[in-house]
User: Fold G-type lectin S-receptor-like serine/threonine-protein kinase from Glycine soja.
Amino acid sequence: MHFLTLAMDKFLRGYGEVYKGNLTNGITVAVKVLRGNSDKRIEEQFKAEVGTIGKVHHFNLVQLYGFCFERDLRALVYEYMENGSLDRYLFHEKKTLGYEKLYEIAVGTARGIAYLHEDCKQRIIHYDIKPGNILLDSNFNPKVADFGLAKLCNRDNTHTTITGGRGTPGYAAPELWMPFPVTHKCDVYSFGMLLFEIIGRRRNLGINLPESQEWFPLWVWKRFEAGEFAELVIACGIEKRHQEMAERMVKLQHLHVFTPQVLASIPLTNKIKENRMRRLEVENDESNSKSGEGKGM
Assistant:
């Protein structure tokens, strides 16, 4: 680790401590130090991060510059994200971002996930998409980070098996807690849960709120289905000029969280790559026409 100088300020992240440092060429970096050289979990996390994010490069993925693998030290050197993680701006009143910027962050995050799923030689499933793992650079461009639970998957296999629970409660897809094979769609579910927190600027689970509002995603969709979108807009503090954008996001959230079986016929990733997220809506025309044909037979 002689090639960099570590600053004294550190912060906890994932399974390790992260230090701010500088390479000899002056570039500021974040150094994630994993503790416990005999801990199997630490070993697995290190291999997962190097084996996934270490092999790919995308603007919306945090870049791994290098790593150290010694008997008493496991460290990962990442690009430094000046503005920290997204959760700092969603759940703290003193640090807020405008709705348009939050929308851009959602789009950038989706592009990063799409790249992992569709454009890598081997598909990468992240397994832990959440605000704390979306880092923001000096211009608030989002970068998907923390690949300690990630897994490479052969594209010929539609499902993959996992050992033990993965992800974070509140964001993890239900199938991750069951003894069944899973697909990359579990990341899409987590992204949907992330969108709910972006639109509401609150945690999805609020134990101090009335029971009817305790689980935010369900409350949002009940209001939307009942034609009470105006109530939702007021509750979330959404300005009138952003209402159309918010409505599209609510539809997208529903598609990912409440009806995951639809994902196979309306792929998220293809639309993201075409930069058409702002136009995303539940496209029922084709399914309706097929339904009409069936009734006529």
